[in-house]
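Quarterly update from the structural biology core.
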Amino acid sequence: MLSRTAQNLYWMGRYIERADATARLVEMGRRMVMLPSANAEWRSVARASGCAADLAEDPKALDRDIIVRLVLDPNNSSSIRCCIAQARANAKAIRTALTSDMWEALNDHWRLLETLDSDEAIAELPIWLDWAKQRAAAFRGAAETSLLRNDGYIFLRIGELIERVEMTLRLLDVKYYVLLPETDVVGGGRDFHQWTSVLRATGALRAYHHVNRGDYTPWGIAEFLVLNPQFPRAAAYCYTQLDRRLGELAALYGGKRFACHDSAAEMVARLEACDIHTLFQSGLHEFIGEAIEVTNRLSNEISYAYHF
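Predicted structure, tokenized:
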């Protein structure tokens, strides 16, 4: 496969996943501000997004400013509008590498988003957030049911997984910092709704309840999102899948391995060897920071290994 095609597929996967994750973050903020106990919820959303930290620290920034930055801002490459636009541009560049179902999933109602203004977006925010999540789900579904399981599919999946694990880690880190800033309050009586909002933002509420039967504790939620090997947005699951997909690429390309293969395998081994009590004792914030650095390094190593 041409490195240019691999690059477009990889970043298409990342942009679609980012649009979906951003929509979930904004939805989390919208739900939380309705609660009397919510404090500066939009600022935590801005921090977790990774692209609006300046607004989170700006005392003059309004909730509206954060929403517009994350949903519509044409100068923010991580806004929902820009992510879908960039995914669509990637798709156009390699149109023959996609199926018609994948293209239609990206193209459906695109013009409506392109002409959307901030007043309309805020007035009908739930509708547009649902639209973004539905586009991402439709694209993933089309890829799963119509795309050949070749190297193109693998690069697409790797991009999704890199973006997914990074967003899960950032969200958990921000919420941990807000709710449990000191070691001696770990496990204390913090806001139930704040912690369950983390599960909602990652689509994990029902899955968590199935595993833990409604025991919504800080360590239980952290363990689920970091170490659960079965939940698709958990760090352990994402890294196991990254290790698997990179192994498939190595097999397709003559068994040649690069630094990215070693980085993924080392992270899988590290996650398999630890438990949540060890993570809390050694510092969950520190572990998550290191994991985000590894994820960013892994992305660069993949780009270097496959020449994009």
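The radius of gyration is 19 Å.
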